[in-house]
Write a structure and sequence with these properties.
Elements (H helix, E strand, L loop, with lengths): L1 H15 L5 E8 L3 E9 L7 E10 L10 E5 L3 E7 L2 E9 L8 E9 L6 E11 L5 E11 L1
Antiparallel strand pairs: 1-2, 1-9, 2-3, 3-4, 5-6, 6-7, 7-8, 8-9
């Protein structure tokens, strides 16, 4: 009987600390850009960011060169929002001298219907560093784990 009570107490204590964190991944691939981003948020109030990473390639020929493939991480994430199926990310990549003084501002806005793992949204991207800023926008597909 003591073993049962001890095991039951341990089980109840363990279930109290279990939380499911949210992981989101978004991607777009069109005539202008190809990118993938992944972010993780804690399930606790405030939805603190666990991690962020991604990569993007600008395919449009009018964009200034030599950006090429850009790897982004949490340092590039300037704004984020995850609440009730709403995901907003703002990414600012400043390539500095390595990218010829070019920078990229990318925003992702997506909505997740209740209980769905796949959802849709839009992206807006502006590339700075050429004669004038170049803006692209399109659809983005996202998912959750």
């Amino acid at each position: 009987m003591h073993r049962f009570l001890l095991a039951f107490t341990a089980l109840v204590g363990a279930t109290e600390v279990a939380h499911a964190d949210s992981r989101f991944f978004c991607s777009a691939d069109d005539k202008n850009v190809r990118f993938t981003v992944e972010s993780g948020f804690k399930a606790e109030p405030g939805h603190e960011l666990n991690h962020f990473r991604g990569a993007l390639i600008i395919k449009n020929e009018t964009a200034p060169q030599p950006l090429g493939r850009v790897s982004i991480d949490s340092d590039s994430l300037s704004n984020r929002w995850s609440h009730n199926g709403e995901l907003r990310l703002e990414i600012l990549y400043d390539g500095g001298k390595a990218a010829g003084g070019q920078s990229v501002n990318l925003t992702v806005s997506a909505e997740q219907p209740n209980g769905a793992t796949a959802f849709q949204g839009v992206y807006d991207m502006t590339v700075y560093g050429g004669d004038k800023p170049i803006t692209f926008n399109g659809k983005v597909s996202c998912g959750a784990k």
